[in-house]
What we know:
Shape: elongated
CATH architecture of the largest domain: Beta Barrel
Number of domains: 2
CATH class of the largest domain: Mainly Beta
Distance between the termini: 23 Å
Helix content: 10-25%
Low-confidence stretches: 1-34
Strand content: 35-45%
CATH topology of the largest domain: YmcC-like fold
Strand order of the largest sheet: 6-5-4-3-2-1-12-11-10-9-8-7
Number of helices: 5
Number of strands: 19
Order of helices and strands: HHEEEEEEEEEEEEEEHEEHHEEE
Structural class: mainly beta
Amino acid sequence: MKKIISLICMVLILPSFFGCEVNNGNSNKATPVPQSLEIKDYFPIKVNTRYVYEGTGNEYASFNIFNDYTSDTKVQQRVDNGGTIMAKVVELKDGKLTRLFSRGEAYYRENLLENKGDEDEILLMEPLAKGNTWTLKDSRIRTITGISVDVTTPLAKYNAIEITTESQKDKTIDYYAKNVGLVKSVFISGGNEITSSLSKIEENVSFTQKINFYYPNPNNDKLNSTSKDISFKTNDITRKVLEVAYKEIVNNNNSKVFTTNTKINSLYLNKDNMVYIDLNSAFSTELNAGALYEGLILQSIANTFGHYYNSQRVVLTIDNNLYQSGHIAMEKGQFIKVN
């Protein structure tokens, strides 16, 4: 069901966000304007900011955007329409605003700014002048059709740049306002119209996830699950935030998993769909547990991070070496199965 929703999101909602590869061949028919307009003014890269859009015409036309990561020229946006979450990396460089990479069903938080993709869809291109046109590889035509268009959204009235993308079957009109960014998008196909309009901008906010952490139960040989609301600011390092949260014991029925000096050296979901977590040596030297309890701790780690990344297999290492203790010795390629 999530894959179907994701497909609907990519096809119907904001084609300017989720489009195809492009050519760089823009037309020479652009009409110059008196003032010099720059894309950076119409697509500000802000931290700790959430943009909320109201939608009509489709149940997934309403969505919100939070900037997970930023650099000097790039931003990774978390687009949540209530049915699925998409991670989208956009770059502002050389007079072009380009979508470089996107990933559907991105429920976990991971820095994708340097991921390589082959999408390279140009959303905006200078000169920001009426008539400037470029062609997408699927033959759609994207044109700046206005540079001073009045647009009304639930939040405010704006004077915006209008971008129209046309194919033989449908049309999308996007509006970008100065110092704000995208304020409205209209998708038209046949007699159907889907509209998404900016309704709220929340500044100095965090992205919050409800995450399940697993711990051994000191009273039996089972695991307990404790749900915590974990908040992330833009550019927070996920592994460090989760490391701190895992050390906090909020229930007397939970035993500690991470010792005081335990550090997560690295944490990621690999292309083989296995989670790789590397801890420092303090985890094993300070463990001080019997074979059964040690097994429960390792299973707790596997369940916590496996569920977070929606993976069934977790590879645990210590300072990039195979996990070894007095009771358990991992072999190369061995993983802990999530249950």
